[in-house]
TrEMBL record:
<dbReference type="Pfam" id="PF00005">
    <property type="entry name" value="ABC_tran"/>
</dbReference>
<dbReference type="GO" id="GO:0016887">
    <property type="term" value="F:ATP hydrolysis activity"/>
</dbReference>
<keyword id="KW-0547">Nucleotide-binding</keyword>
<dbReference type="InterPro" id="IPR003593">
    <property type="entry name" value="AAA+_ATPase"/>
</dbReference>
<dbReference type="InterPro" id="IPR003439">
    <property type="entry name" value="ABC_transporter-like_ATP-bd"/>
</dbReference>
<keyword id="KW-0067">ATP-binding</keyword>
<feature type="domain" description="ABC transporter">
    <location>
        <begin position="2"/>
        <end position="224"/>
    </location>
</feature>
<dbReference type="InterPro" id="IPR051782">
    <property type="entry name" value="ABC_Transporter_VariousFunc"/>
</dbReference>
<dbReference type="InterPro" id="IPR027417">
    <property type="entry name" value="P-loop_NTPase"/>
</dbReference>
<keyword id="KW-0813">Transport</keyword>
<protein>
    <submittedName>
        <fullName>ABC transporter ATP-binding protein</fullName>
    </submittedName>
</protein>
<dbReference type="GO" id="GO:0005524">
    <property type="term" value="F:ATP binding"/>
</dbReference>
Length: 229
């Protein structure tokens, strides 16, 4: 389980995260939802140790952040970070050489799933295809948790559908997924838990199925209550 406990983050004089606490469990898809600037990416960066927090604690399977913990977590940033001149096949080889946890079989399955041509150069990929390749790089390692920053940003409807499909496929297995989005769209029926953020605070944290069956509300209904009370 990823546990975020009372974290606070300040940029200069302004708090961008204020006492943020939530958990993301293995075998579940947890979604951090909020408008632009709510603090979603800052939380992912804090979990990855890429930005320091002023106070609070982050635990992964009960352990504080550290090298052994990072081997359990893969991070898919909101853009590809590979050299643009590389072919996809070269990018895959680079990842296999670099990461002990790289699972070449899963990488191949993902390449087939997204129908990617590994002879293409990364720099020539369309935005949607680049997002798919980015997901291949994030999902191929044998990590127990996957963090994804806005996997749907700027992508056309059919590519979004394909990316959404991967979340309900066996390619995710029993891993814990924590992703961010500012538009819930087709993810609504795929996510288990929603953590709605507003202005650096948690506005609501709930089990989507429970709220649907007990209160008849969708994630968007709850978002309206948080943003337009
Ligand atoms: N390096 C930085 N220096 C100063 N302020 C920053 C920095 N990075 C982020 N912020 C501020 O922190 C707040 C939260 O930013 P963050 O990127 O976490 O939001 P977000 O919810 O991911 O937004 P988006 O949906 O637009 O990606 C914003 O007000 C942003 O301007």
């Amino acid at each position: 389980m990823i546990e975020v406990r009372n974290i606070r983050k300040r940029y200069r004089m302004r708090y961008v995260l204020q006492d943020v606490s939530f958990t993301a469990e293995k075998g579940q898809i947890t979604c951090l939802i909020g408008m632009n600037g709510a603090g979603k990416s800052t939380i992912l960066k804090a979990i990855m140790g890429l930005t320091p927090v002023k106070s609070g604690q982050i635990l992964i399977d009960g352990q504080p952040l550290g090298k052994s913990v990072y081997e359990k977590v893969a991070f898919v940033p909101d853009h590809l970070t590979m050299p643009l001149g590389m072919k996809l096949s070269e990018g895959l080889r680079f990842m296999a050489d670099f990461y002990d946890s790289w699972n070449p079989q899963r990488a191949e399955e993902l390449i087939r799933f997204f129908k990617l041509d590994t002879k293409e150069r990364i720099g020539n990929l369309s935005k949607g295809t680049a997002a798919k390749f980015n997901l291949v790089l994030g999902l191929a390692p044998n990590s127990e948790y996957v963090l994804m920053d806005e996997p749907f940003s700027g992508i056309d409807m059919f590519s979004r559908e394909m990316i959404a499909e991967v979340f309900s496929s066996e390619l995710i297995e029993e891993r814990g997924v924590l992703l961010t989005t500012h538009e819930i769209g087709e993810m609504e029926h795929l996510i288990d838990r929603a953590v709605i953020m507003r202005d650096g605070k948690i506005g609501m944290d709930f089990d989507c199925e429970q709220v649907r069956s007990e209160e008849g509300k969708s994630v968007i209904d709850v978002m309206r209550e948080v943003y337009l009370p």
